[in-house]
Known about the structure:
It is a single chain. The chain has one helix and 21 strands. The chain is mostly beta strands. It is elongated, with a radius of gyration of 27 Å. 22% of the residues are buried.
Amino acid sequence: NPYLGMSVRRSVSVTLSATASAIDSLGASQPLAFLWSASPALPPSAQSIVWSSRTLTVPAKTLASSTSYTFTLVVSLQGHSHVRTAVNTSLSVASSIPVVRILGGSRNVDVSSSVTIDASQTDNGDDGTRSGISYLWTCTSLPSCSNIPPNILQTQRNTTILNFPPNSLQVGSTYKFNFTVTNTENVQVTISTYLEVISGDLPLVIISSLPNSFVASSSRVVLHGYSSANNYLWSCVSHVLDMAKPEISQTGNTNSDLIIKAGALTPGQSYTVKLSSVSALSGLTASTQISFSVLLNPTGGHVTVTPVEGKALHTMFDVATAGWVTEAVAYPLSYQISYYYVSSSGQQLS
């Protein structure tokens, strides 16, 4: 069970694997039968699950949030069901965590233009739905917030979109808007976005939202940008990270899209990336930002080989790995098992 001691998300599939063998008095392997069960019982949607295999795979969105399950595996000799053994393993499913997506993120805006903060793509996270979610917008940057006409924020505070008419925000002010999402399990997530108000022609600059607020260090990060001025400059404002360097970005820092290479970011760190664009008419620079976190790499695992010795072209070796631990949102883990040759002196050959 790779999930021992961890809570998994309902949005991911779960795989449990068994290693078992039976040897008769002559040293020959005997065929085995496997039968899994779960308590509490899984819903009717689990009918497609194969319960009589060495490996049990439970599809995503089958398990219930905030629930602990006990899976029992009975292994018996084929044709001799009375010769058997059983083992239990436990699994906890975490509460659903809403995924908040704010289109455009923090940015500077022109006072004479209408401004929209769009969080309509926010969802429950685990099942991708928006049912049962409540929303609350607040402004917490004083005295700037007191400059907003009261009816604008009050009438939209429980929606997913804030619309500000031209000249409803004050030049020279920076506003901090907090968007709080609460799901049916009473789990709250709050994301803040900042608007800096200036006067003058500004291009529209947008960074498309990521599917999640976290990424794996072993995967590349793809950010899609748009500018009405059709010029682009990407930078990292949270770390000393030159997006122009080929070892960091495979697209450079002046294209509409930014692709950060796998392995270029540090596990466990949070990053804020900015896209800037200059107006050809006014020479003013508009910018927007996006933030995300890099997941910690799995640790604590081990690999076992059974048996440790054998004969070429005769012995069947079973290679298994378990015990890997990481953040709950990273499950399920994927594995790649490989091998290499070692010389008699212990040197790796290939």
